[in-house]
Design brief:
With about 375 residues, the chain is α+β, with helices and mostly antiparallel strands. It is about 25% helix and about 30% strand. Strands 7-8-9-3-10-11 form a six-stranded mixed beta sheet, sandwiched between helices. Strands 2-1-4-5-6 form a five-stranded antiparallel beta sheet, covered by helices on one side. The protein has a five-stranded antiparallel beta sheet with strand order 14-18-15-16-17. The protein starts with a strand and ends in a 15-residue tail after the last helix. It binds adenosine-5'-triphosphate (ATP). The site of adenosine-5'-triphosphate (ATP) has 13 residues, from helix 1. Adenosine-5'-triphosphate binds next to helix 1. One of its GO terms (cellular component) is ATP-binding cassette (ABC) transporter complex, substrate-binding subunit-containing. This is Iron(III) transport system ATP-binding protein.
Length: about 375
């Protein structure tokens, strides 16, 4: 199937409220696109418009040259003629049909012959690990099991485009992890296009080939997961993607002569013009802790006090106070400093992100960071330091 294109798509309601505003998006054939964002940002509305369950109030939706929706041209193709499979949070299984019959239903509707139906139902149940429940009715299943039946029902039909709205939300942590891997495998094997709605950034980072981060009906950034992680386009994206979240520090004198002023001085020494009323960001895993004498030359560094250490078994999150500001550092080596002890926190300049007063990423600072020499200072150690 050619790529799905959304061209200045908006959806507003009578109240005047916009669920989605001027959305431009290309979902290439075979992509795994995650629509990621907080509750109410317009993800589900976008998915429902692609499915044909909602009509845009302006803009066009196309698949290649074929127009699915166009307010101007008066075109609207109904959901059943779009060749897309849908799974929503509310799975809408037929209550009077067994699991196997529910999965088979779509195949019957498409007049798939009996023997092939059986093979496809068995294969889908195997993939989603629900073969043991084949003869049960939906009311005899847990929410997570019902969710897997809904996924199996859709996969059995083998649509060219899968539209998934929080399809893993009812699963426990282990099953969710397994299903993420399974969905990723299914996508890689089938080559179909997947559009998945989630508010879980880990879900987006682990499965997607493309992520669209949405905020209040607008797309803040669209890119590959690592691009979004490494170069967040705005303070919103920086704060939303990553766990623990990026440390964000108001620059200049916004907080008196605190950490912001300290960072501004350092950036100015490097030849950067820190954006006025801007924000600096540094990921917890980019913050290193050391004795002052051990900090390599040229690094940003400042004295800090350890407040709390939160070990998880494989990593240590360290809460620090630095020039009056709270920072979080993440380390993968045992860290057992006692609360109240002094340390020095440091980071290579290439690991600092700068955003202007408008919240957008500062391209000027990125250019300075890309100058020969600036990048050499980065010591990327895969998280271990
Ligand atoms: N029928 C409607 N009438 C008025 N406003 C609506 C309607 N449907 C959705 N909205 C509003 O549009 C905005 C976007 O809703 P949408 O369901 O797309 O968000 P979402 O990002 O999917 O949220 P969630 O993750 O909570 O499902 C919300 O502010 C919502 O209140």
């Amino acid at each position: 199937m050619p790529s799905i294109e959304l061209d200045r798509v908006s959806k507003s309601y009578l109240s005047g409220q916009y669920a989605v505003r001027d959305l431009d998006m290309v979902i290439p054939d075979g992509a795994f696109m995650c629509l990621l964002g907080p509750s109410g940002c317009g993800k589900t509305t976008t998915l429902r418009m692609i499915a044909g369950l909602e009509q845009p109030t302006s803009g066009d939706i196309r698949v290649g040259a074929k127009v699915l929706d166009s307010v101007e041209q008066g075109v609207y193709v109904p959901p059943e003629k779009r060749g897309m499979g849908l799974v929503f949070q509310s799975y809408a299984l037929w209550p009077h049909m067994t699991v196997a019959r529910n999965i088979e239903f779509g195949l019957r509707m498409r007049r798939v012959p009996g023997p092939e139906r059986d093979t496809r139902v068995r294969s889908a149940m195997g993939m989603l690990r629900i073969a043991d429940y084949a003869k049960r009715y939906p009311s005899q299943l847990s929410g997570g099991q019902q969710q897997r039946v809904a996924l199996a029902r859709m996969l059995a039909v083998d649509p060219e485009v899968l539209l998934l709205d929080e399809p893993l939300s009812n699963l426990d942590a282990r099953l969710r992890l397994e299903m993420r891997a399974e969905l990723k495998r299914i996508h890689q094997r089938s080559g179909s296009t997947v559009v998945l709605v989630t508010h879980d950034q880990l879900e987006a980072m682990t499965m997607a080939t493309h992520v669209a981060v949405m905020n209040e009906g607008l797309v803040e950034q669209l890119g590959a997961p690592m691009e979004i992680y490494d170069r967040p386009a705005s303070v919103f994206v920086a704060a939303f993607v990553g766990s623990p979240p990026m440390n964000l520090i108001p620059l200049g004198n916004q907080n008196g002569a605190g950490l912001g002023a300290h960072l501004t001085g350092y950036l100015a020494d490097l030849g950067g013009r820190p954006p006025e009323d801007g924000t600096a960001g540094v990921r917890p895993e980019s913050l290193r802790l050391a004795a002052e004498a051990d900090v390599p030359e040229g690094m940003w560094h400042a004295p800090a006090e350890v407040e709390t250490v939160l070990p998880t078994g494989s990593s240590w999150t360290v809460q620090l106070r630095c020039h009056g500001t709270e920072l979080f550092a993440l380390t993968f080596r045992a860290f057992d400093a006692v609360p109240g002890s002094s340390t020095v926190v440091w980071a290579p300049p290439a690991d600092l992100h700068l955003f202007g007063a408008d919240g957008r990423r500062s391209e000027d600072w990125d250019l300075i960071n890309q100058r020969p020499g600036a990048g050499d200072q980065t010591v990327r150690t895969g998280g271990v330091r």
